[in-house]
Amino acid sequence: MVTVKNMNVCARLQNYTTVVLCEVDSIQNVKDSLKGAGYCEIDIAFYYIEDAKSDSRTLTQAVYPMVIGYWSSDNRLRRNMVTAASSSPKQRHNLWTCKKPTLDRDGDGVVINAEQKVVELMESIITTFSFEREWVLDACCGTGSAVIAALSVKRNAVGIDLDKRQTDHTEMKVEGYCLECDGDITMEDVESCE
What is the rounded CA–CA span in Å between residue 185 and residue 153? Predict the structure, then answer.
């Protein structure tokens, strides 16, 4: 079950784009939730995990939908909104491909998040639907793939998850990423909220 609530209560943004990665049987539920939350346009795209076996059952299980919602305070798309139209900073298409992720493990070798996404896929989505220095919110950040992706393509990022083990891991990954950036990003630029 997916519930979309008005995410604009405090920020008072004029417009924003929401991308929900979901299962095929959840598409209509997500679309209905976005429509009920006042999104002015809803779009669908898909991503394919390339490393799937070639039989048709596995192949169809390797394609996942993304529901994209465009919200605007006056319920109209604006020129500066990043949409499927030509105003997009990157040419938009309806099928992204990515490699199967190498799952992060803890010190005991236990997988931290079996649903981990590939950073490169998140980078592609983020560069398609946002501009540099804009904000990216990952409300189910898991092990932080979207947070790392946002930082790597010069976006601001906020990651939230209910699982403290995963947010601790995300913070560790962000710290490691900051060390690799040759001073472009430091931990002083990253704030952790307990």
Answer: 12
Neighbours of 89 (CB within 10 A): 13
Confidence of residue 1 (pLDDT cuts 50, 70, 90): very low
Mean pLDDT of 72-77: 76
Kindly report the number of other CB atoms within 10 A of residue 187's CB atom. 12
For 42, the 3-state DSSP assignment is strand
Domain ranges of the chain: 1-100, 101-184
| Residue 102: strand, helix, or coil | coil
Q: Which residue has the tokens 């490699």?
A: 99
**Structure token pair of residue 112:** 């931290």
Q: What is the mean pLDDT of residues 154-167?
A: 89
Q: Which class in CATH covers the domain with range 101-184?
A: alpha beta
